[in-house]
């Protein structure tokens, strides 16, 4: 089973970023679907505790309840409309092929 990845700002994430294509945007597991402004990692529900947002994000725009990474922004997080088509970064549990 695989899920969108939860992105923590540590050295392991730098390795993940090396595989992303320049100029692209990627969905990751952060969302504030449950309570507007309270960001959590899906599906665990663990709170987003680090602050790696781009400038004024999350800005709470209409329908912007999903988190994405943008290479052109140095992989800072942005909140965006969940219906937009983007690439995604997934991780799988050990033992799954």
From TrEMBL:
Signal peptide: none annotated. Gene3D superfamilies: Mannose-Binding Protein A, subunit A. It holds the Pfam family Lectin_C. It comes from the Eukaryota. Residues 1-91 form the C-type lectin domain. InterPro entries: C-type_lectin-like, C-type_lectin-like/link_sf, CTDL_fold. This is C-type lectin domain-containing protein.
């Amino acid at each position: 089973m695989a899920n969108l990845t939860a992105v923590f700002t540590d050295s392991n994430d730098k390795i993940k970023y090396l595989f992303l294509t320049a100029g692209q945007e990627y969905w990751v597991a952060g969302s504030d679907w449950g309570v507007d402004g309270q960001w959590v990692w899906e599906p665990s529900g663990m709170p987003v505790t680090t602050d790696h947002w781009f400038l004024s994000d999350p800005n709470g725009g209409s329908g912007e309840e999903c988190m994405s990474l943008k290479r052109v922004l140095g992989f800072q997080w942005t909140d965006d409309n969940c219906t937009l088509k983007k690439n995604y970064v997934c991780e799988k549990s050990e033992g799954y092929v």
